[in-house]
Amino acid sequence: MRTADVVRTAFSSLNANRSRSALTILGIVVGIASMILVVAAGEGARELILGQLQGFGSRTLFIEPGREPTGPSSFVEIFTDSLKEQDVRALTMRGNVPGITDVAPVVIGSYAVSWRNESVRTSVIGATDIFAEILDVDPDQGVFFDDEEIKQRSPVAILGSEVRRKLFGETDAVGQIARIKNVNFRVVGTMPQRGNISFFDVDNLVLVPYTTAQQYLTGTDYLQTILVRVESEDIIPRVKEDIMGILRANHGITDPAKDDFHITTPADAAERVSMITGILTALLTAVAAISLVVGGIGIMNIMLVSVTERTREIGLRKAIGATRRDILSQFLLEAVLLTAAGGIGGIGLGTAMGYATSFVLSRALGTPWTFVFPLQAAAFGLVVAAAVGFVFGLYPAQRAARLDPVEALRYE
């Protein structure tokens, strides 16, 4: 029997039972759609996070308290309070670390900010003008707080556009007094609408001097982060080693295994993001693969039913010359065509869901979430779908091929 005849017969058989065929491949459609959606979401998340990291620039290092986590057992060490003002002074001291251009201490908290009868809970960041420069945000009204106000721990604040709108409406905010944690803060400036920059929703935050945040808000002399900007990317590895040496000396650490801080470079952050999203994508894809197995079992069951229903047809075809190979090829091809159709449907459904998800997330997060069509995953999914059809269709096809033509013709 020619290959074209086998293909034509297989298509005719599937077309004769379109409703059953459609229901049979549902598991395959869901499995492939889930795979496409998961891989696309992982890639979209990776691009979003890397894009946010780029907002800090490729010359910025992050110093954070706590030993760098190496696994679940060390996770708690992330929250060790160890960075202080003396570390900032040591890093800014001329000649200590050649190549450093800026050092920005950062204190972060969430507080209710109020004016008269209006109140909004938002992020309050204690920082310096260097932090704003790194993020490339400048007041559109008023001024930024100066070094003297930082030194004097002055209760002054700069408001993001949304905070200003929610509190003051059309009233000029500059010069007004807002309250944060029962402390009066004089508004010295407001920022224009900027959206999300480097994980910070600039429109919904308040900037105050970091020294002021320590005294009036956190009540501690600790820092959550120190941002360090260097002259060029080429010197980042050397600067990182120099900083580690200075901080170890400041903290009295002689054994690197006992570090109470860790430094993240842009390359480290990108590698970590790729690793985490890769692991999550792999795990969720494995879960999605369960649908493919379930779909494969459904294919096998329906093909066995089909063999039983078409026993006389098989006997007749064998009686007029069809070989075992012809019967095997036809039923195997039917199974592969079913799952391949499910794979194509799954790719279409997964793509549609991916675009819908990216739209919803973009609206919810307030930042563009790009749908990245996973071409390799789609091609792989189609191959896997066909392979599932082959594997789970093999037993029913063999069973059909082994039927005795005489017994098959007698089947009622």
From TrEMBL:
<protein>
    <recommendedName>
        <fullName>Multidrug ABC transporter substrate-binding protein</fullName>
    </recommendedName>
</protein>
<feature type="transmembrane region" description="Helical">
    <location>
        <begin position="369"/>
        <end position="395"/>
    </location>
</feature>
<feature type="domain" description="MacB-like periplasmic core">
    <location>
        <begin position="21"/>
        <end position="243"/>
    </location>
</feature>
<feature type="transmembrane region" description="Helical">
    <location>
        <begin position="279"/>
        <end position="306"/>
    </location>
</feature>
<feature type="transmembrane region" description="Helical">
    <location>
        <begin position="21"/>
        <end position="42"/>
    </location>
</feature>
<dbReference type="InterPro" id="IPR003838">
    <property type="entry name" value="ABC3_permease_C"/>
</dbReference>
<dbReference type="GO" id="GO:0005886">
    <property type="term" value="C:plasma membrane"/>
</dbReference>
<keyword id="KW-1133">Transmembrane helix</keyword>
<keyword id="KW-0472">Membrane</keyword>
<dbReference type="Pfam" id="PF02687">
    <property type="entry name" value="FtsX"/>
</dbReference>
<dbReference type="GO" id="GO:0022857">
    <property type="term" value="F:transmembrane transporter activity"/>
</dbReference>
<keyword id="KW-0812">Transmembrane</keyword>
<dbReference type="Pfam" id="PF12704">
    <property type="entry name" value="MacB_PCD"/>
</dbReference>
<dbReference type="InterPro" id="IPR025857">
    <property type="entry name" value="MacB_PCD"/>
</dbReference>
<keyword id="KW-1003">Cell membrane</keyword>
<feature type="transmembrane region" description="Helical">
    <location>
        <begin position="327"/>
        <end position="349"/>
    </location>
</feature>
<feature type="domain" description="ABC3 transporter permease C-terminal">
    <location>
        <begin position="287"/>
        <end position="405"/>
    </location>
</feature>
<dbReference type="InterPro" id="IPR050250">
    <property type="entry name" value="Macrolide_Exporter_MacB"/>
</dbReference>
<comment type="similarity">
    <text>Belongs to the ABC-4 integral membrane protein family.</text>
</comment>
